[in-house]
Amino acid sequence: KAFPQESFSFFIGTTLDKSHPAAFLMEMCTQMAAALGQPQDDHLWKDTEELKTVFIALQRKISQEAKSSKKSYYFVIDGLEWIHHESGQKSILDLLPYEPKAHMYLLTSCEPGRVPTFKHERLDIAPFGTSEAEFYLKGLAIEQDEIRTLRRHCNGVPGYLAAVRKLVSAGKKYSEISQ
Predict the structure, then answer these.
(1) What number of other Cβ atoms are within 10 A of residue 117's Cβ?
(2) d(Cα 75, Cα 47) in Å, to the nearest integer?
(3) Most confident stretch, 60-69, 93-102, 122-131, 162-171
(4) Which end of the chain is more exposed for a tag (fewer CB within 10 A), N or C?
(5) Which pLDDT tens digit goes with each residue over 50-66?
(6) pLDDT value, residue 47
(7) Angstrom distance (rounded) from CA 52 to CA 110
């Protein structure tokens, strides 16, 4: 993150701790509280309904800060395609800050052909080609044929390649995360 105090991010995954609304709320509240210089652990033991209240309050404070300082704030949510919205159950989709506010932006991923139900501008991000993926992952303990297979499986989506790069750079073996 180039501007950690002005961006709040969450990568939705397939596990409970990366797809449950409470996990999203805790992470967003922690990041917004840090940006506002507030205690970051006050909300960690709250239930989901209490977290929603804190989330909305922090969003309002960020909005006020954005107006007064003229700084832009970004909510970056990747992995929306991992959400399986079950009828009657709330999901992270229900919590996203859709309503446009001055100097506040919501940046999300979206599967091709899946159109968000809120007002939006579409920006296509070109996927990495094979040579770009090889260059991006160069110097890591990943064989070239593994890079080609990874790129094919993730369709060259930069966010997935970045996640693999981060894990391998942190010491994970590619074989441990590729299964």
Answers:
(1) 7
(2) 22
(3) 60-69
(4) C
(5) 999 999 999 999 999 99
(6) 84
(7) 24
> Which residues are bridge partners to 101 per DSSP?
104
In terms of DSSP H, where are the helices of 5-91?
21-35, 48-69
DSSP conformation class of 90:
-
Higher pLDDT, 153 or 98: 153
CA–CA distances in Å: residue 124 to residues 19, 94, 103, 109: 24, 24, 22, 10
CA atoms within 13 A on the CB side of 124: 6
- Give CA torsion, residues 58, 59, 65, 71, to 10 deg: 130
Helix (H, G, I), strand (E, B) or coil at 104: strand
* Lookup: tokens for 158: 């930069």
Asked if 82 contacts 103 with a C-beta cutoff of 8 angstroms, the reply is no
Return the minimum-mean-pLDDT range out of 108-112, 161-165, 175-179: 108-112
Listed in sequence order, the DSSP H helices in the chain are 21-35, 48-69, 130-136, 144-153, 158-169, 174-177
